[in-house]
Amino acid sequence: MNKVVFGFGLLLSCVASAHAGTGPAVISEKAKAIQAKAINLDTHLDTPALFGRPGWKITDRHTYSGDGSQIDYPRMVEGGLDGGFWVVFTGQEGRDAAGNLKARDAGLKRLSEIREMVAANGDKFELATTADDAARIKAAGKRIVYISMENAYPVEQDPSLLSFYYKQGLRMISLAHTSHNDFADSAGMGVAPKGEHGGLSEKGKALIAEANKLGIIIDQSHSSNEVFDQMLELSTAPIILSHSGAYDVFAHSRNIDDKRIRALAKKGGVIQVNSLGGYLIDTGATPEYRAEQRKIYEAFGGRRGMSEADRKQAMEQIAALDKKYNIKKADFDDYMRHLLHIIKVAGWEHVGLGADWDGGGGVQGYEDIAALPKVVQALLDAGYDEKQIDGILGGNTVRLIREVQAKADPAAVKAALE
């Protein structure tokens, strides 16, 4: 049973302009003008996972129905997304020497792919490393590419690699993913698993200290509540939740409760709201369902190397599996329920967008980034003004980058850049 604590009156006008939960049908000129002026950033873009797909190009316009992708340059332009944090993601595997070495190489490969994408499309994208870069790159008519790491697994073998990543542009790092690692306990995937470290390990605490010195934003998303509490206490700079939801709207271990949201805001942090359906509502996905879904992807050699024909077959099989298990689909209203609740709890100055595009995010009516203007209109309909919407779209993220970097150790930054 979902526990919902929400000011329903705030959402009435938004719902009234929607069609069956799919969001506003018309985007007003006012909404368009607000979005055009704002710096629109999403703090969790898993799109680099697509860079290795045969024949897939960031400069081509794809469709979610066609190949399952949610971000590309044409749709960024269409949806008004100026950029965000492009993720170096490494799934958690073995925690022995062989696993750590494999993770190290996977992380470096993904980092290279992001930088190569930017270099190959210099007329459309530009690497960003400071808060001021966001406005400058937007003004130049390009898309903004900050780099983040989801799961610190690639630096388990050698934490000093963090300095190398910083030199290459890394400006945000999360410690864990869906299972525990050497740095921190994970929040798991529904019900929080028993912790291994009681939150952060000593290695994790040291990584936070080093990230603070370099001015790298510390990301709590995917880590346990105990990790959140310890991060907030130990970090000398505000932290971020790059793609999370509201536990008091839907009790899922990946979401964060109101008490902690308030504590985050009090310390100057920002929570970016996720759009992954299974974190927004109870979809009915059982362990058996997830196991069958995993087998489908494994039958095609995994998600990354699929051909277009294989991908279409996999999507058809997943759709049939969803029907078999009567999987419920979250929609735009479900997403806005989390977003508006979090704004109410944290205050608009501490909220942003981190939809988890190309990493599992997206709901009915908000399937890809081309639909971003719906969020702007829904915020307007809910009574928020231009200044508040500007902050939520990206201004709060830019402020956080600035504050974290202002607290960095100049000597550590200089040494990393030499």
Helix and strand layout, with pairings?
Elements (H helix, E strand, L loop, with lengths): L7 H9 L12 H9 L3 E5 L18 H4 L5 H7 L3 E7 L7 H24 L4 E3 L3 H9 L3 E8 L10 H7 L2 E5 L27 H13 L2 E3 L5 H10 L5 E5 L13 H9 L3 E4 L3 H4 L6 H13 L8 H17 L7 H15 L4 E3 L18 H10 L4 H21 L3 H8 L1
Parallel strand pairs: 1-2, 2-4, 3-4, 4-5, 5-6, 7-8, 8-9
Helix pairs in contact: 1-14, 1-15, 2-15, 12-13
Could you please describe the fold and organization of this structure?
It comes from Pseudoxanthomonas helianthi. This is Dipeptidase. Residues 1-20 form the signal peptide. InterPro entries: Metal_Hydrolase (IPR032466), Pept_M19 (IPR008257). It is built from 17 helices and 9 strands. By secondary structure, the protein is of the alpha/beta class. It has a single domain (8-283, 328-417), classed as Alpha-Beta Barrel (TIM Barrel). Strands 1, 2, 3, 4, 5 and 6 form a 6-stranded parallel β-sheet that branches. A 3-stranded parallel β-sheet has the order 7-8-9. The radius of gyration is 20 Å and the shape is globular. The N and C termini lie far apart (54 Å). Mean pLDDT is 93; it is low at 1-19.
Give helix and strand order, one letter per element, not per position: HHEHHEHEHEHEHEHEHEHHHHEHHH
| CATH topology term | TIM Barrel
- Number of extended strands: 9
Helices, by number, come to: 17
Instruction: Please state roughly what percent of the residues sit in beta strands, choosing from under 5%, 5-15%, 15-25%, 25-35%, 35-45% or over 45%.
Output: 5-15%
Low-confidence stretches: 1-19
Largest sheet: 6 strands, parallel
Radius of gyration (Å) = 20 Å
What shape does the CA trace take? Answer: globular
The class by helix and strand makeup works out as: alpha/beta
Task: Write down the CATH class.
Answer: Alpha Beta
Q: Report the average pLDDT across residues.
A: 93
Assembly form of the protein: single chain
In CATH terms, the superfamily is Metal-dependent hydrolases
Helix-residue proportion: 40-55%
Termini, distance in Å?
54 Å
| CATH architecture identity | Alpha-Beta Barrel
Overall number of domains: 1
